[in-house]
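Incident log, structure service

09:12 report received: a user says their structure output differs between two submissions of the same chain.
09:20 pulled the input from the user's history:
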Amino acid sequence: MNAPDEEPLGYWYALIGQQYLQVLRKELAHLGLDRWYLALVHLAEADGPMTQQELADGLHLDKATMVRALDHLGAEGYVRREQCPNDRRKHHLALLPKARPAIKQIRDAYRMANDVVFAGIKASERKRIMDQIKPMLDRLKKAEQAMEAPTSKTHK
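09:34 re-ran on a clean worker, output below:
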């Protein structure tokens, strides 16, 4: 058996993520969504119009994934794309009336799921854990970019 610091962190986070999403799906099944809950919350918390690209950046998603998410949210009647008046290549996103009550339910479901995950853990420790998790993504993205960057040596 590997020492705890040698176990693949991604494996355990993936399992937690899968189970967390299953809890949310069951709690929010009546909304007709199978994911993309956070996209609605993020849109609701925006300070004014938000473009597809801004939402994708805020959620750390690539463009193709964001388009699929918005297609799904649009088909279910939660979001509408509106052409940006100053730049026809951009689309602003508008929450439809159906989204407002759903967002409250989504926030409640996130609180419930977090309470399940963090059961028995003090609030100060919960915050410390979250403060450590978020920068992990940034470090992984930087590592990935470094791996993709062309090397200074040329191959002959």
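09:41 both user submissions now match this output. Likely a transient worker issue. Closing.
09:42 reviewer note: Residues 36 and 132 are 24 Å apart (CA to CA). The mean pLDDT is 89.
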